[in-house]
Amino acid sequence: MLGFDLYRPRTLQEALKLLAEFKGSARVLAGGTDLLISLRAREREDVKNIIDITSLRVLDFIQEDDSRLRLGPLTAHAQIADSPHIRQGAGLLAAAAAAIGSPQIRNRGTIGGNVVNAAVCADTVPPLVALGASVKLERMEECRWLPLEEFITGPNRTRLEADEMLTEIAFAKLTATAGWGFTRLARREAMAIARMNVAVVLERDSRGRVVTARIAPGAVLASPARIPQAENILLGQCPDEALIHQAGQAVATAMTASGSRWSTPYKEPAIIALTERAIKQALEVEWR
Ligand SMILES: Cc1cc2nc3c(=O)[nH]c(=O)nc-3n(C[C@H](O)[C@H](O)[C@H](O)COP(=O)(O)OP(=O)(O)OC[C@H]3O[C@@H](n4cnc5c(N)ncnc54)[C@H](O)[C@@H]3O)c2cc1C
């Protein structure tokens, strides 16, 4: 039988105090769609205390100012997918959130849980990397910000300390002229974890030349990162089929350079196609 003590703090301060008290033996419970599964599978025998933060409404927000979007970690995927602010200022994140699991999982699962769980296939992570997101980590009387790429250090590994909580995710809004793409490959359209995914942001000048390129694949490298080799192929160019293919190949090369597995021969053409499609989506912005 599973055994743990459950706490339901009424304030963020209370939650942080509990984390400080319990150190490594406590975990935060948000939607529970990852945590409860791993507890049931007995992958977290060290966890003796669960801190349920679902009633901390102060962590559930989508805020927009002139240039930035700020999300509370308790924001559910369904809220992100439906938010006019996110759809306008970070469409690729809304598209990724809409692709997660099923309506039940999207209503329950949170962006904070997706980021802290740090699965290589996490759907919100590549869009957040492409958006240049940073995360706010708080402990009693202290807080720090880290770029998301520094926060996630490997599969299911982050720089979160035992007494810290993720309390905000923030990034600059996309400009009105920026194009974006998000593609994913899974066994089915719904209720299937992504095998790979790709997020792309492109900005072009009035002559159609790419002036900003951000390409962030998921489940391709051990930890999330943009692929500058692919981005540089597009920068300063008016991308055609050949260049788009080269950019896809550059992502595949970065993947194989990071290590080869039994699935690599299958993944190579798949990641090229996913990248090409995401770039083409990003180039179609005017016609959306
Ligand atoms: C059937 C099914 C389908 C799924 N499909 C997808 C999918 O298509 N794409 C995808 O990306 N994921 C998918 N998932 C995984 C999961 O739903 C997501 O990762 C979800 O976003 C996790 O959020 P949560 O709120 O449920 O996290 P929880 O399970 O509550 O927490 C996950 C981890 O994060 C920690 N944590 C949560 N919030 C905080 C915080 N604020 N501060 C510090 N630590 C925190 C917890 O302690 C735990 O270690 C699926 C899961 C299931 C069960």
Helices, strands, pairings?
Layout: E1 5-7, H1 12-22, E2 26-29, H2 35-40, E3 49-52, E4 62-64, E5 68-71, H3 77-82, H4 84-89, H5 91-99, H6 103-108, H7 111-117, H8 125-130, E6 134-139, E7 142-147, H9 148-151, E8 152-154, E9 157-158, E10 165-172, E11 179-185, E12 196-204, E13 210-218, H10 228-234, H11 241-257, H12 264-283
Parallel strand pairs: 1-3, 2-3
Antiparallel strand pairs: 4-5, 5-10, 6-7, 6-10, 8-9, 11-12, 12-13
Bound molecules: flavin-adenine dinucleotide.
CATH topology of the largest domain: Uridine Diphospho-n-acetylenolpyruvylglucosamine Reductase, domain 3
Please give the domain count: 3
Task: Return the string of H and E elements.
Answer: EHEHEEEHHHHHHEEHEEEEEEHHH
Number of strands: 13
Q: Biggest sheet, in brief?
A: 5 strands, antiparallel
Structural class: alpha+beta
> What is the percentage of strand-forming residues?
15-25%
User: CATH first level of the largest domain: which class?
Assistant: Alpha Beta
Strand order of the largest sheet: 4-5-10-6-7
Shape category: globular
Oligomer designation: single chain
- Indicate the mean pLDDT: 94
> In angstroms, what separates the terminal alpha carbons?
52 Å
How many distinct helices?
Answer: 12
The helix fraction, in percent, is: 25-40%
Low-pLDDT ranges: none
Radius of gyration: 19 Å
Bound molecules: flavin-adenine dinucleotide
The CATH architecture classification of the largest domain is: 2-Layer Sandwich
